Amino acid sequence: MTQVLAESLLAQQTQSPSPITTTTQSPPAAAVVSQSPQATAGQTPSSELANIEAKVRPSVIWVTVFDSKGNLLRTESGFFISADGRFVTTAHAVEGGVNAVAKTADGGIYNVSGVLTVSKPADLAVLKADVKPQKLLRFLDLTKAGELSKGAKVAVVGSSLAGNEGSARETTITAHSSERLEIAGATAASSIGSPVVNENGDVIGIVTSAGEKSIARPVAALDSVLSRVKADTQARWAQTPGTSPTPHATPKPRLLFAPAPSFPPGQSLPGQGGTGRFRLTFDAQGNVADIRVVTSTGNPYFDQSAIKTLRQWKSAPSQGWQATVPVTFRTR
Questions:
Q1: Out of 39, 97, 132, 175, which could bridge 182 as a Cys pair, Cβ 3.0 to 4.6 Å?
Q2: Residue 252 gets which letter from DSSP?
Q3: What is the pLDDT along the chain (332 residues), one digit of tens a residue?
Q4: Measured between alpha carbons, how far is 138 from 82 in angstroms, rounded to an integer?
């Protein structure tokens, strides 16, 4: 007998489709199943800018925020600042939100468990994403250097998911204070929430306003907001009018095709068995874009068989989601 257990990042709840039954010949076996553009065309980035972009880009994220009905509110940039999944974006980005996902350039999709702190006057918010294992997460360091001077060279690095608008842009500081940085040149709206970094790739600010005059909050303002986050601070979404203590689930993606893995040839001997857990990432079209082994079955042939079959799974189109699939091989 095969059961499918899928956890949607968009719904933040467990989805349990109807059981799937698989029958095999002697001996019978069952599998229990208990996701960097270059500069704008015509421009060639300097080697220094390319190096900065390569260093910073893996930590920049695309934050998609939803309301209590599962409707898309807005999408903005942000960036990770710690290995445990803390990241920074604007306060406006999360206003009215009860759920969100953070996407990285390499296809990673992380559920956002909630807000750690928010400052509307500074237009800054610190949130927490569910990241496991933490050691694989790339994050940016906040500069400890003194105040930057007018004319200092900096770079704005957006998300590659914003297309050419997210390409790294070299610019200069035209004015500065402890609460505000003005940056030369126009910045795309999709770059709001992106980090402003120095020549070492360390964060010196975060873009909070785009247009002909780009405004950023300096690290000093961000440090002030971060000081509110204590060791025991829990990430949570603010309650909005009309919402209950438990936010309403967003629509669940439906699995359309979910065949059960079968025993690999030569492995269906008495006493053979093993249980593993596999993380599936579905793209917007419902195809499996990535499979990661969370826990091996202990048998490489079992793992290969499970991955081969799970890669064929299909779901209904969605915003993109993930499912954790336990698979058990056992002989009867």
A1: 175
A2: P
A3: 333 333 333 333 334 443 333 333 444 433 444 333 333 433 445 788 999 999 999 999 999 999 888 888 999 999 999 999 999 999 999 999 999 999 998 888 899 999 999 999 999 999 999 988 766 789 999 887 656 778 889 999 999 888 888 888 899 999 888 888 999 887 888 889 999 999 889 999 999 988 777 899 999 899 999 999 998 899 999 764 444 444 444 556 788 888 888 888 776 667 778 899 999 998 888 889 999 999 988 888 899 999 999 999 988 888 888 888 998 888 76
A4: 8
